[in-house]
């Protein structure tokens, strides 16, 4: 057993409690890391790896960082996914002759970061806890930097809903109980590796006790949380974890909000991505997202509030109208709105500043920032009286000017304090008499000594008398041997040298005591005064948080009003009915990006004869843009925003589903088609009659016939009688699906119009009633830049297929089946994954006379074997075979090979 030095024994004792963390061990002015921690940190931070004699035969690997710049190094490690335990000296080395005491004061993890330089001020930084038992899931999420704390529970069959919530919160860190079965999926979906936490922390009794103890209540009924609930288990365990890592009482967490499914619009992961609510799909940028289009907020709280509104639209019409009233009030009063925005622009991130104050990590500049932020609170409160909307009246009644906090900081802290607390100079002159005396001593000491020296020379008559200083004897009076007889009796001999004597006097000792202790005592007293002020301000955390919450709301409302004013948005009429009626609707992002004028379009959906709109038209014509704009207008209306339209009546929807585009999910081994079908299954299994569904090109990625069959069946399931009945926009290149209008109730056809100009097409972007009969695939391919040789060959093939009256196609680069002929019967389809050609049957409106093949297919479909005898069935089959033998079989053109398709093959495909 190796013998370590006492300090290393101390290190190992502390490290044993934080095995999964990198331990920053404070030694003087450095944080040092040892052994494996040092090796890891040196690699990740590009630090020089050295060594230290620790009492062993071999030196321990070591590296370190200066304590005053440690935050940047900690940030890099946390960003890479490490947890860092900060171990501080907990006693002053000046006052101990033994080993300095040390302990971990905080563990920094991705979900508990509080340093504002490590955070995006426009979004929350959540840590999440998930609990699973046989009956379902409990979820709790907390942002320790703002104090937000929320919890919910879901039945066992709703793990998909749980993942939707994970997508909404997008936590930086997650802890779970051992039973949670979805950790691997969380890791693959969100690139987040959950950690299993102590099982005892999830026990109902332990979790409930932790929560009631923290909030100092007898029970959690005031929060709507039951004692044995799954949300209580998750919330209590999360609070336990936070106290374990943060090493403080977490007094910034003042309430727990329990929420239910149905309180807000549900938007699943795929739909959030497809609609690009907060970031774009291509580069994950906010700039061209819906949030980017609406966000002109002036404060960090406003930015976070607006983001939360976009991510969590309302379903309560009264609450929506309250926001709309406030937005309209601001929109119609531009001068007052600008005045409010100017006042809000002076407010810094007081939510996160307060958390630093509560954590005892704030410096005097943070207090000064808080003071400057609340300076204009009285003006903000007065300005709220100028608005008539009920929401502004409510806020004015509850808005705290925080004048006492402002006055206390103003009286105590210097106007331009230093960043650190070691050098002093951050307490105002005149605030404390004792501190002023120390500062006077520090600044006046040299003058006192000069005056004393001059006075002693005059009193003794020794013109060469000098007052000097050294570290051993301090200040002293020095007289050379030739003048020793003139030294007065009040001089106290201190030291005899070869050519002089050194003395002190009572007056000199008093001056020495004042001067030498002034610096140190001033620094200690300043810190004491600062700590007392910090504690006093920390006690106002709930008051400051409430003001910050209202500032966020004001700022978000002003941002929505700005957008409404600048971009000609209208106030939507939100109803509890089922209609969505939009006149002159526009896409809030695309209309700002295009070089030309955006083409507005109308939309009408209801729960009756207009519940499913089939939209056809060529690629690039604007089908996807149109459908997305409808979804975004509905979502904007339900967050309380004005919308890009001339008029809009929006019946509340409970969920928005989109299936737009697809790609392989290599991580889970799912093909493009499998991803597509998984998303469709989620929609069909979870949508209700109050949902809005956006479906774009169902059936791509498989054979044309399979894809058409699935798309057809999905449409019937959504729109058919006694089926789902959700309001739906359904874009497709399967023109056969337009046949459903008139056959399935609620289905209406629309097309995005184009104009032909020679071999080119012009996209008119206008949505009109009726179905399209062409997809203009080759024209779009020309616009994409395909080589002329390829385009020419494609036209030749298209011509041959059309002349043969064949409806077939070939998959484009995304697996989309592009129709190449109109009319016809059975013909070459799309090669399946094995490379075999699959026949296609065309159901669309014909432009050519029906041929024999279509007649034969109809006869097959009309055979009702349930009402026929065996003899009658055989007779019918014999009749059809005779017709086929009479040379009515269509020629199949596939790669230049001619052949015939048997009746059995046709029947199988039906």
Descriptive overview:
The chain folds into 6 domains: 6-108, DNA repair protein MutS, domain I (MutS, DNA mismatch repair protein, domain I, 3-Layer(aba) Sandwich), CATH 3.40.1170; 116-261, 2-Layer Sandwich (Nucleotidyltransferase, domain 5), CATH 3.30.420.110; 295-402 and 543-566, MutS, DNA mismatch repair protein, Chain A, domain 3; 440-533, MutS, DNA mismatch repair protein, Chain A, domain 3, CATH 1.10.1420; 573-772, Rossmann fold; 798-909, no CATH class. The protein is α/β, with parallel strands linked by helices. Helix 11 crosses helix 20 (541-566), helix 13 packs across helix 19 (506-538) and helix 18 (433-460) runs antiparallel to helix 19. It has a 7-stranded mixed beta sheet, with helices on both faces. Strands 3-4-2-1-5-6 form a 6-stranded mixed beta sheet, sandwiched between helices. A 6-stranded mixed beta sheet has the order 11-10-7-8-9-12, sandwiched between helices.
Keywords:
MutS, DNA mismatch repair protein, domain I, 41% helix, MutS, DNA mismatch repair protein, Chain A, domain 3, disordered C terminus, 910 residues, Nucleotidyltransferase, domain 5, alpha/beta
Sheet/helix structural class: alpha/beta
Looking at CATH, which topology of the largest domain would you report? Rossmann fold
Shape from CA axes? Answer: elongated
Mean pLDDT figure: 86
Strand content: 15-25%
Count of individual domains: 6
Work out the helix count: 29
Strand order of the largest sheet: 13-23-24-25-21-26-27
| CATH architecture annotation name of the largest domain | 3-Layer(aba) Sandwich
CATH superfamily of the largest domain: P-loop containing nucleotide triphosphate hydrolases
CA-CA gap between termini: 80 Å
Residue windows where pLDDT falls under 50 for at least 5 positions: 664-669, 805-850, 887-910
The helix content is 40-55%
| CATH C-level name of the largest domain | Alpha Beta
């Amino acid at each position: 057993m190796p013998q370590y030095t006492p300090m290393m024994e101390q290190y190992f004792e502390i490290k044993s409690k934080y095995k999964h963390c990198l331990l920053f061990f404070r030694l003087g002015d450095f944080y040092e890391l040892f052994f494996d921690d040092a090796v890891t940190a040196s690699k990740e931070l590009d630090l020089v790896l050295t060594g230290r004699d620790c009492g062993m035969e071999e030196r321990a690997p070591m590296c370190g960082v200066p304590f005053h710049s440690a935050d940047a190094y900690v940030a890099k490690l946390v960003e890479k996914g490490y947890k860092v335990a900060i171990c501080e000296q907990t006693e002053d080395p000046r006052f101990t002759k033994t080993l300095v005491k040390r302990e971990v004061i905080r563990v920094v993890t991705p979900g508990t970061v509080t340093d504002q330089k490590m955070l995006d001020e426009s979004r929350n930084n959540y840590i999440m806890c998930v609990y699973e038992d046989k009956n379902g899931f409990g979820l709790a999420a907390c942002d320790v930097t703002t104090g937000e704390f929320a919890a919910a529970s879901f039945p066992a069959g709703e793990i998909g809903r749980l993942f939707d919530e994970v997508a909404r919160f997008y936590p930086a860190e997650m802890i779970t109980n051992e039973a949670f079965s979805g950790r691997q999926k969380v890791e693959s979906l969100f690139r987040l590796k959950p950690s299993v936490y102590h099982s005892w922390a999830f026990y109902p009794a332990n979790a409930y006790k932790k929560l009631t103890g923290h909030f100092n209540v007898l029970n959690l009924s005031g929060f709507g949380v039951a004692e044995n609930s799954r949300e209580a288990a998750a919330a209590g365990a999360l609070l336990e974890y936070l106290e374990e890592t943060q090493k403080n009482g977490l007094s910034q967490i003042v309430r727990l909000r329990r929420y239910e499914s149905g309180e807000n619009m549900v938007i699943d992961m795929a739909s959030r991505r497809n609609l690009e609510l907060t970031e774009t799909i291509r580069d994950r940028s906010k700039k061209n997202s819906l949030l980017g289009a609406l966000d002109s907020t002036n404060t960090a709280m406003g930015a976070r509030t607006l983001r939360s509104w976009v991510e969590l639209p309302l379903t309560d019409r009264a609450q929506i109208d309250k926001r709309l009233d406030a937005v309209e009030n601001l929109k119609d009063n531009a001068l007052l709105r600008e005045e409010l925005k100017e006042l809000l622009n002076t407010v810094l991130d007081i939510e996160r500043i307060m958390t630093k104050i509560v954590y005892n990590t704030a410096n005097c500049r943070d207090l000064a920032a808080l003071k400057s932020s609340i300076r204009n609170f009285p003006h903000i409160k007065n300005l709220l009286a100028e608005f008539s909307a009920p929401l502004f009246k409510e806020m004015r009644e509850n808005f705290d000017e925080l004048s006492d906090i402002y006055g206390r900081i103003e009286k105590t802290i210097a106007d331009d304090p230093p960043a650190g607390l070691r050098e002093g100079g951050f307490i105002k002159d005149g605030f404390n008499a004792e501190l002023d005396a120390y500062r006077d001593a520090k600044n006046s000491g040299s003058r006192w000594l000069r005056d004393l020296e001059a006075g002693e020379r005059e009193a003794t008559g020794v013109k060469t008398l000098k007052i000097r200083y050294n570290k051993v004897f301090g200040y002293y009076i020095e007289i050379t041997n030739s003048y020793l007889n003139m030294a007065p009796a009040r001089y106290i001999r201190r030291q005899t040298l070869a050519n002089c004597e050194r003395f002190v006097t009572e007056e000199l000792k008093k001056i020495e005591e004042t001067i030498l202790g002034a610096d140190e005592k001033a620094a200690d007293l300043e810190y004491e005064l600062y700590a007392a002020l910090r504690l006093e301000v920390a006690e106002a955390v709930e008051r400051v948080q409430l003001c910050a919450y209202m500032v966020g709301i004001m700022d978000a409302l002003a941002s929505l009003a700005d957008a409404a004013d600048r971009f000609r948005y209208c106030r939507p009429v939100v109803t509890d009915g089922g209609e969505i009626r939009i006149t002159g609707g526009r896409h809030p992002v695309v209309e700002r990006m295009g070089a030309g004028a955006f083409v507005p379009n109308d939309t009408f959906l209801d729960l009756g004869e207009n519940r499913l709109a089939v939209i056809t038209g060529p690629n690039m014509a604007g089908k996807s843009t149109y459908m997305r704009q409808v979804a975004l207008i509905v979502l904007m209306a339900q967050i309380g925003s004005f919308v890009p339209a001339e008029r809009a009546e929006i019946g509340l929807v409970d969920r928005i589903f989109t299936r737009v585009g697809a790609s392989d999910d290599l991580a889970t081994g799912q093909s493009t088609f499998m991803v597509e079908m998984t998303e469709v299954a989620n929609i069909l299994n979870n949508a209700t009659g109050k949902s809005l569904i956006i479906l774009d090109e169902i059936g791509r990625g498989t054979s044309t016939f399979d894809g058409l069959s699935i798309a057809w069946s999905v449409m019937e399931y959504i729109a058919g009688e006694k089926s789902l009945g959700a309001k739906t926009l359904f874009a497709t290149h399967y023109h056969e699906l337009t046949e459903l209008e008139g056959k399935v109730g609620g289905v209406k056809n629309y097309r995005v119009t184009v104009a032909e100009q020679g071999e080119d097409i012009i996209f008119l972007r206008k949505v009109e009633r009726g179905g399209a009969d062409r997809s203009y695939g080759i024209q779009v391919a020309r616009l994409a830049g395909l080589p002329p040789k390829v385009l020419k060959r494609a036209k030749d093939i298209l011509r041959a297929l059309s002349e043969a009256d064949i409806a077939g196609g070939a998959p484009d680069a995304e697996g989309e089946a592009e129709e190449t002929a109109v009319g016809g019967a059975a013909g070459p389809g799309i090669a399946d994954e094995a490379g075999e050609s699959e026949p296609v049957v065309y159901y669309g409106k014909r432009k050519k006379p029906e041929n024999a093949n279509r007649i034969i297919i109809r006869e097959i479909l009309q055979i009702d074997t349930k009402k026929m005898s065996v003899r009658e069935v055989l007779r019918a089959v014999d009749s059809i075979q005779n017709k086929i033998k009479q040379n009515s079989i269509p020629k199949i053109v596939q790669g230049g090979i001619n052949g015939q398709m048997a009746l059995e093959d046709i029947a199988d495909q039906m």
